[in-house]
Write a structure and sequence with these properties.
The complex is a heterotetramer of chains A (506), B (155), C (122) and D (500). Chain A contains 18 helices and three strands. In chain A, helix 3 runs parallel beside helix 12, helix 9 packs antiparallel against helix 12 and helix 14 packs antiparallel against helix 16. Chain A is globular and about 70 Å long. Chain A starts with a strand and ends in a 12-residue tail after the last helix. Chain B is 66% helix and 0% strand. Classes of the chains: A mainly alpha (506), B mainly alpha (155), C mainly alpha (122), D mainly alpha (500). Chains A and D meet through strand 2, helix 5 and helix 6 of A and helix 17, helix 18 and helix 21 of D.
């Protein structure tokens, strides 16, 4: 195991957003000061997380025990490459979303903004906690906090429909949390250890296949709700009733990604490839993921509401990552991890555009989007970049991860999943390109005269995210070494923790 | 339950002196006798059947006999109604007091052996210790029963 | 069969009293009858303790000069008797409290029949 | 000198206060409340001192009136009883501080009676926790029961009948306990708990002992409102005055649970019980059934206090489940849940008291004005307690459920695990229903809105709000330091005979 240092930075990174909550609540009368607190928290969290990057690249892992929860298990944070990978995505995109949501909330005139920003900060704090948690129990604790933090956001509009989807979200999230608690307790009884270890720690402990399958299903059910696996996905489209920045960051990046991150932790760091192979668990996971990809893409075809279509496309792309993990091949695992980052940037661009269109033109249905290309050129350009990326067209980053996913499918010899990836690429085009066609090639509808771009506070983040996707597409290792991190992680997991991370020189 | 101006007004109205002189005179004659028997039963609780509880009941019976015979208002001098509940509390306090007195004298709660009475050997100390307890019990039982009678009358 | 009954007739009696008491509490609708059933249950238990202290041919535990002191079998076991003094006091106090409650209920609702009470309370 | 007297001082000073209050009330009306709070505070201090002494030095044995154990009554302060006496007196202290204004507002007539009875109740409860003699336990059981009947009877018009129903059931329970004790006494010959547990193994014919034990468990189950024997609880807690409920609800059933712990873990060897007899399994299954039934009933209640009463039945089911596991993890889970639930339930009932004093009612459909603005602190305390009851991690409720799940899985008892999950979800349903009512502006205007109260409400007075907030913060502290609580206080309690 690489040498572990004791340092308080991971704790500060998690505490930064949480500390902002009381400040936001106190300064509810002065919006500008309140927004300043959100931005300050965003920048500090991102700065702290990035400051950890050189250490991790050089192979050092940093840990911090907050307190012992129950004898033998501590609520502790540990910055290993996987945790840092997810933390970077969340904290960086939080900055962009903060700017965007300030523009959005003021543009759409939302009420109860203080509660909005406070629960936003709580969610991000919990997500960072999930990313950096060192063992299963800390993961569950932050997981439950995230479920609680998201509830006020889902019911933000306080209409009857938002209450209903809020209740549905809560039922799914709480039952998932409870299943996870039971699974964690079972793991503790079996292995008396909950700390994540590359290559898994349940190797020698699981005796019979039935128990292993039951435990795996418990974990996947617990984590799969947030990862939008098919039978447990129906809360995600319902949660689209929330304001768009919430859908953008939470239901495209933070909440659902923490579900997929949970799948990565369970598959890679609790069970480990060897045990999954031994008990045939990977085929279960792969089958569920493949079905989800195809079904989600097909349903997305028929959705007229823009945000619902994006939601189903998110469900599909999340299962890309799950399928990548289930392939149990180094390239597949790496492809999944990369897609975690790439899908985040592209999907957040699409949601931002949907938000800008709503705020600017008050249009939510796709059939109303005729000719807005001329009215909102920058937004629709970013939208095009996002769409091309998700369909797997080369210059944008989603292509890189899809390429490695296909390579993983080929190297693991399961060509059926290769077919699934390619078919879903086509389906992506099938449900995204009509939107582009309507926007650019259809004559402008009636109410478009006199409308320009949305406010700069919203358009600038959209363009930044689109450019980010493009840059990451051309230089996958740019800025934050996503590529090296992903390769290092997949090697360590596949080799079963034998290969130390030292060989990860930039 | 309408509250009268002063407590026990309703009781005073309801329970006037008895109409027939025989009862009035007999109750005045009998009451002291019952009280003496009550005290006798109380004091001889150690050797013969009896003790604090039974003594208290007899004393209460005599007071209630007077209440019924001579009327509620006239017998206030014997046992004022307002005093019944506090007197019961005082009885309990005597019981607890002897217990704590034993603690103060260094022994355990209710351990009469440690009472600072050098001229008595332990067995006698125990019997006199019990006596203090019995006094408390008698007082409590008597006043509680009279309190029940008064409050029932009072509606 | 006979010596079983001869040996344990007290216990059969107690079981009968206990069951009658429970039956009374459960089935009777009048609250006062429930209180009677309750007191039967309590006295059955108290008597059960007293019966448990019985010894063949033993006398009450008061020093009798004619009998020696060392032989314990000649005297009944005093402990259950003393304990049951307290249990009797407890039973009396419970009866007292239940009667107080019944008086309050009667004063307010003018009836002690449970079905009528429930209607009046709606 | 004082520490050796602590086991006695706690019940005795409560009794002393119970007798002093009628006299004190003659001098000045408010003095009875002050005396009650002062005595409870003193006893809380003694209990804490006792707990510190027990964990550092060792057990405290106190022979009443100097008689040695097998004959005389012995008060014992060991880790379990010290732990329970601390949180019983602590919660009672907060409830009594809160009761100051509520009694003046709700209970008609002289409030001396309330405080004197409250002291008597606490004397009985702390006596039950401290005594080492089984018959003395019965006497204290009856004292506390009688005090609670009287406390419950002074409430709204339906209170006397529910108090009467509680009285009949409670007395039958006590009669069963006494009957069971007769069997145990006849076969063992001693009444001192430690003495009996040593004499039991070499008792030849074990049938009467087991019958006696099961009768005692039945009696205590009735006092503890274990599932099939809980009929009295809902009416009793709903119709009593909110001050009485806030005092009785959190600690009444917990002390009965303490007695059940004593009977099932210390009187008889739990290992033997679990292997030879179905008793722990029955208690566990009744607990599980109670958890489901209580939560389901709580879901369909309109009135907040009745809902909390049914949720009490469910939470007692958790403790019974822990006891039913008859393993160290089950023991830790049951004890920790007794502590957590006492604080949670006390906080919830105090908040209900705040609502009743300010709004005049606590029926859910009529909680019209969003209390988030008018009573922010009470609503916040209610949210903290609700989240802890549902069992979400940062707060205390999660950790006791964690131990219960661990214990169930260790015995691979999947039924209990499923029931734990299901009842946590049901808890979530009926608590979030109330939270939604508190925090979100209602959609359809409910039928009979008494608009008058909407404008008049303002935050509860400080003397009622302070204990509520202390309890809410206590939940967070208990959650965070639960590992320390388990390792320093609960582990030394586990009976040595219980193998892992």
């Amino acid at each position: 195991m690489p040498v572990t240092h004791e340092s308080v930075i991971p704790l500060l990174a998690v505490l930064a957003p949480l500390a902002a909550i009381p400040l936001i609540l106190l300064s509810s009368r002065r919006p500008n000061l309140r927004e300043f607190w959100t931005l300050a928290a965003a920048f500090t969290a991102c700065g702290l997380v990035l400051s950890l990057l050189p250490g991790v690249l050089a192979g050092r892992t940093v840990a911090y025990d907050i307190l012992t929860i129950s004898p033998g298990i501590a609520l502790s944070l540990r910055v290993d490459p996987t945790g840092l990978f997810f933390a970077i995505i969340c904290s960086s995109l939080w900055i962009l979303t903060s700017f965007y949501s300030i523009g959005y909330v003021r543009g759409a005139g939302e009420k109860k903004q203080t509660r909005y920003f406070a629960s936003f900060a709580l969610c991000i704090g919990a997500t960072l906690g999930i990313a950096l948690s060192a063992n299963l129990l800390s993961f569950v604790i932050f997981y439950e906090m995230l479920s609680l933090g998201t509830y006020p956001l889902v019911i933000h509009k306080e209409t009857r429909e938002s209450y209903r989807s809020g209740r549905m979200y809560l039922t799914y999230a709480l039952s998932a949390g409870l299943l996870l608690i039971v699974a964690t307790a079972w793991t503790w009884t079996l292995a008396h250890n909950l700390d994540f270890r590359p290559g898994g720690f349940l190797g020698g402990v699981l005796a019979d296949e039935g128990a292993a399958r039951a435990l795996f299903l418990l974990f996947i059910a617990g984590v799969g709700v947030k990862a939008g696996l098919m039978p447990l996905h129906s809360w995600l489209p319902a949660a689209m009733v929330a304001p768009t920045p919430v859908s953008a960051l939470l239901h495209a990046v933070a909440v659902v990604k923490s579900g997929v991150f949970g799948v990565i932790r369970v598959a890679g760091f609790v069970f480990g490839p060897a045990t999954m192979q031994a008990f045939g668990l990977d085929t279960i996971l792969a089958a569920v993921a493949a079905v989800t990809i195809i079904l989600a893409s097909v349903i997305a075809l028929r959705q007229d509401n823009l945000k619902k279509r994006l939601a189903f496309s998110t469900i599909g792309h999340l299962s890309y990552i799950v399928l990548g993990v289930a392939l149990l091949s180094p390239e597949g695992f790496m492809g999944g991890l990369l897609h975690l980052a790439n899908h985040a940037t592209t999907k957040i661009a699409l949601f931002f555009c949907a938000g800008a269109i709503y705020v600017n033109l008050h249009k939510t249905e796709i059939s109303e989007l005729d000719g807005i290309g001329k009215v909102m050129p920058w937004t629709m350009a970013a939208f095009t970049v996002g769409v091309l990326g998700l369909s797997g067209v080369p210059p944008i980053n989603a292509f890189v991860s899809k390429f490695y996913l296909c390579k993983g499918a080929v190297s693991s010899g399961q060509l059926v999943f290769l077919a699934v990836f390619l078919a879903s690429g086509l389906l992506n085009m099938a449900y995204f390109f009509p939107i582009l066609h309507r926007a650019f090639f259809r004559p402008g509808g009636a109410g478009l005269h006199g409308h320009g771009e949305a406010s700069p506070l919203m358009v600038v983040p959209i363009v930044i995210v689109a450019v980010l996707s493009l840059v990451l597409g051309l230089y996958p290792n740019a800025l934050v070494h996503f590529f090296d991190l992903a390769r290092g992680i997949s090697q360590s997991v596949m080799a079963g923790a034998a290969a130390p991370l030292a060989g990860l020189a930039p | 339950m309408i509250e009268h101006a002063r407590p026990f007004d309703l009781a005073a109205e309801r329970c006037g002196p008895s109409s027939s002189p025989i009862i009035r005179i007999a109750s005045r004659g009998l009451a002291p006798l019952i009280q003496i028997i009550g005290l006798y039963v109380f004091f001889h609780g150690h050797y013969s059947p009896g003790g604090g509880f039974q003594g208290g009941v007899l004393l209460a019976a005599s007071i209630i006999l007077l209440r019924m015979g001579l009327g509620f208002a006239n017998t206030q001098t014997v046992m004022p109604s307002g005093w019944t509940v506090p007197l019961g509390a005082v009885g309990g306090l005597i019981y607890i007091g002897t217990g704590f007195f034993a603690v103060l004298c260094g022994g355990n709660f209710l351990d009469y052996g440690v009472f600072p009475m050098p001229w008595l050997d332990p067995p006698h100390l125990h019997s006199y210790g019990i006596l203090f307890i019995e006094v408390g019990v008698t007082l409590t039982v008597m006043s509680t029963l009279v309190a029940i009678f008064d409050h029932l009358l009072d509606g | 069969m006979l010596e079983i009954i001869k040996g344990y007739y007290a216990y059969f009696f107690l079981v009968a009293v206990f069951c009658i008491g429970l039956f009374g509490m459960m089935v009777k609708r009048n609250l006062m009858k429930k209180v009677m059933g309750m007191s039967m249950v309590q006295s059955a238990v108290i008597l059960f303790w007293i019966v448990s202290a019985f010894k063949e041919g033993a006398t009450v535990t008061v020093l009798d000069p004619t009998r020696e002191v060392e032989n314990a079998d000649l005297y009944l076991n005093p402990l259950p008797h003393t304990l049951m003094l307290t249990a009797i006091v407890v039973a009396v106090v419970t009866l007292g409290v239940s009667f107080a409650l019944l008086i309050v209920i009667y004063r307010r609702y003018r009836t002690l029949e449970e079905p009528l009470l429930l209607e009046k309370m709606q | 000198m004082m520490t050796s007297h602590i086991p006695l001082l706690i019940p005795a000073s409560f009794l002393l206060a119970a007798l002093l209050i009628p006299l004190a009330a003659l001098l000045w009306r408010r003095l009875s409340w002050l005396l009650a709070v002062a005595t409870t505070g003193l006893c809380f201090f003694y209990a804490v001192k006792g707990l510190v002494h027990v964990t550092t030095v060792g057990r405290l044995h106190y022979h009443l009136a100097g008689w040695q154990p097998p004959f005389g009554i012995e008060f014992v302060l060991d880790p379990l009883s010290a732990f329970f006496s601390v949180f019983v007196t602590g919660v009672a202290l907060l409830a009594l501080i809160h009761a100051g204004r509520v009694v003046a507002h709700e209970v008609s007539g002289v409030d001396m009676g309330f405080y004197s009875l409250a002291m008597l109740l606490l004397a009985g409860l702390s006596g039950m926790v401290v005594t080492g003699d089984l018959f003395n336990l019965y006497v204290f059981l009856e004292i506390s029961a009688l005090a609670s009947y009287a406390l419950i009877a002074r409430g709204d018009p339906r209170a006397p009948l529910s108090a009467f129903r509680y009285l009949t059931l409670g007395t039958t329970g006590a009669a069963f306990y006494l009957l069971g004790l007769a069997f145990v006494y006849m076969s063992v010959g001693s009444l001192n708990l430690a003495d009996v547990s040593q004499l039991l193994p070499d008792v030849g014919d074990t049938r009467p002992v087991l019958l006696g034990l099961s009768l005692m468990v039945l009696g205590i189950g009735l006092k503890m409102a274990l599932f099939p024997l809980h009929a009295w609880l809902a009416d009793a807690y709903t119709h009593a005055s909110s001050a009485a409920t806030a005092l009785i609800a959190p600690i009444g059933t917990k002390v009965a649970a303490y007695v059940l712990l004593r009977l099932m873990f210390f009187l008889v060897d739990p290992q033997y019980l679990r292997d030879q007899t179905p008793l722990p399994a029955i208690v566990g299954c009744l607990g599980a059934a109670g958890m489901l039934w209580g939560s389901i009933m709580a879901m369909c209640q309109k009135e907040l206090k009745r809902m909390l009463a049914y949720s009490s039945v469910a939470q007692v089911g958790y403790i019974a489940l822990g006891i039913g596991l008859a393993s160290p993890l089950g023991f830790i889970g049951a004890t920790l849940h007794a502590l957590n639930h006492a604080c949670m339930k006390a906080c919830l009932f105090l908040v209900t008291g705040n609502f009743r004093v300010r709004l005049g009612h606590s029926t859910l459909p009529r909680l019209v004005d969003d209390l988030r603005r008018t009573m922010p602190w009470s609503a916040a305390a209610f949210t903290a307690a609700a989240i802890s009851m549902v069992g979400l991690p940062p707060l205390a409720g999660f950790f006791s459920k964690w131990y219960l799940v661990l214990g169930s899985i260790q015995q691979s008892n999947w039924v209990f695990v499923a029931v734990l999950v299901a009842s946590s979800l049901l808890n979530a349903v009926y608590f979030f229903r109330v939270l939604e009512r508190l925090y979100l502006t209602p959609l359809a205007p409910p039928g009979d809105t008494d608009v008058a109260t909407a404008a008049a409400t303002r935050e509860a007075p400080a003397s009622m709000l302070a204990p509520t907030l202390v309890l809410a913060c206590a939940l967070l502290v208990l959650g965070i330091f639960n590992a320390w609580i388990v390792s320093t206080f609960i582990n030394p309690m586990i009976p040595s005979r219980l193998g892992w």
